From TrEMBL:
One of its GO terms (molecular function) is DNA binding. This is Transcriptional regulator with XRE-family HTH domain. SMART domains: HTH_XRE. Keywords: DNA-binding. The lineage of its organism: Bacteria, Bacillati, Actinomycetota, Actinomycetes, Micrococcales. One of its GO terms (cellular component) is cytosol. It comes from the Bacteria. It holds the Pfam family HTH_3. InterPro entries: Cro/C1-type_HTH, Lambda_DNA-bd_dom_sf, RmlC-like_jellyroll, RmlC_Cupin_sf, TransReg_Diox_bact_type.
Amino acid sequence: MVEQLGSRIGSAIKRERTAAGLTVSELARRAGISKATVSQLESGGGNPSVETLWALGDALGVPFARLVDETPEPVTLIRAADAPRISSANSSYVAALLSASPPNARRDIYLVHVEPGSPKSSLPHTRGTVEHVILMTGTALVGPAASPLAMSPGDYLCYPGDAPHIFDAQDEGTTAVLISEIR
């Protein structure tokens, strides 16, 4: 599964980079990562973090999901154990893309698993990004980095994703559905 995901990510990065008319060096510069990392990812190698994929998506002007998701079938069932998981490099935060935004829509749906410890701090995403979170299990502080809000199971929160934001699990086994949309 990891090899398949790596190949899919590599193909998507190369496809989007080529469509944007960028060289590997220019993409690396814009994303703030090394040229070697971009080359390794494009060849299907490496294990990119959520932060690396967001940086590449932002540099390419595409949603993170376009670098991860497969072309959807008319009916899609993703078993929890089979969801393609991508971990954060800086915290115990794992995101599984459940549904990428189709070409004429601008939203992605994730299932996230977060453990207490280092909070998942995110830099601003593409301008106009709004995030919606529905907490499923555990408790967490979520939202704008300067003023996160306490959430309990079943709570819904909407906040600007184009400003610094945070997800700080307070309990083990915290899970949430995150919907990222660009307005």
